[in-house]
Amino acid sequence: MKCSNASLAKAIRVKNDDFYTQLPDIETELWYHREDFKGKAVFCNCDDPYMSKFFHYFSWNFEELGLKKLITTCYKNENVNFFSENKSEKAICLEYIGKRNGGQVPTPEEIGIQRLKGNGDFRSKECIELLKEADIVVTNPPFSLFREYVAQLMEYKKRFLILGSMNAITYKECFKLIQDNQMWLGVSLRGKGIEFEVLSDYPIKKGSGRIGENGKKFVKMGNVRWFTNLDYEQRHVSLDLDEKYYGHESSYPRYDNFDVINVDKIKDIPKDYEGVMGVPITFVEQCNPDQFEILGIANNVRWIGYECLTIINGEKVYNRVLIKNRRV
């Protein structure tokens, strides 16, 4: 099955944001961050506890991770028999402090369901008060509200591990956080796609998804990544550079009217160039902040942080991240 971003683009247009992350994808990424959770309160504020594998992961691993508390809220759902339909004008909240029964994943009924006064929107006053209690937020927020969601996390100075479209890198607000080393990409989805479970009425087109056991539907999206401000060891591994600029200048054309060389592939970044380089936006997945300085992002119509248009001999070049090697 090929990776396609058509479903993601459609979801952003029509605000169909019911994409459910699968447990193996959560387990793989959380493996790199386990030490960050000891003694912490975790908030999953976009999660139906019946459908959410985030709730499953944290409730099952509560004692092993040494969590203090697990809080989850669900948008527009209060009837436990109809989770994920988003038909209620009110919502529910679950708070779990461990001591599960019989070594099994606790059900919402075993934990106890608290009914919210409002609809559970992460921007509501009730959910903001819960956010203030939390140390780390982990969830798959609505793609269509990603800017607003991240802005709220930063406003309340929260640590987080969330899923979002790779295109968010080019959002002015998000890129500024990446540039200032306040947000970066996670480990496990680099260069890969992710498969989400979707609701039964979600349209599956040929090549973009599949129908699994018991009629469950899944869509594959190659343009989704983890975004976080939880540091990890792999982020500080230096990128091996083999190519040279001097003596091979013709391989690195400059942008029209800007003293910036273009690098089409990350593997071709020269190890001896001290100036500004325009590299593919996927570079941010591999950026070691100790090795490279991110100056901005540029394309043929706009720029962020560093004035530059990516045009070579009158021809447009796709978006580029503008960087300098700190070690030259």
In brief:
The protein has 328 residues and is of the alpha+beta class. The protein is 18% helix and 23% strand.
Account of the protein in words:
- 18% of the residues lie in helices and 23% in strands.
- It starts with 5 loop residues before the first helix and ends with a strand.
- The model is unreliable at 1-16 and 77-88 (pLDDT under 50).
- It has eight helices and 19 strands.
- It folds into two domains: 6-233, Rossmann fold (3-Layer(aba) Sandwich), CATH 3.40.50; 237-325, no CATH class.
- The longest helix is centred in the middle third of the chain and has 10 residues, at 146-155.
- Strands 5-4-3-2-6-7-12-8 form an eight-stranded mixed beta sheet, with helices on both faces. It has a five-stranded mixed beta sheet with strand order 13-14-19-15-16, covered by helices on one side. It has a four-stranded antiparallel beta sheet with strand order 1-9-11-10.
- It has helices spanning 6-14, 23-30, 53-60, 62-65, 108-111, 125-133, 146-155, 172-179, and strands at residues 19-21, 41-44, 69-74, 92-96, 114-115, 136-139, 159-165, 184-185, 194-198, 209-211, 217-221, 224-228, 260-262, 276-279, 292-298, 303-304, 311-312, 315-316, 320-325.
- The protein is of the alpha+beta class and 328 residues long.
- A hairpin with a 2-residue loop joins strand 17 and strand 18 (315-316).
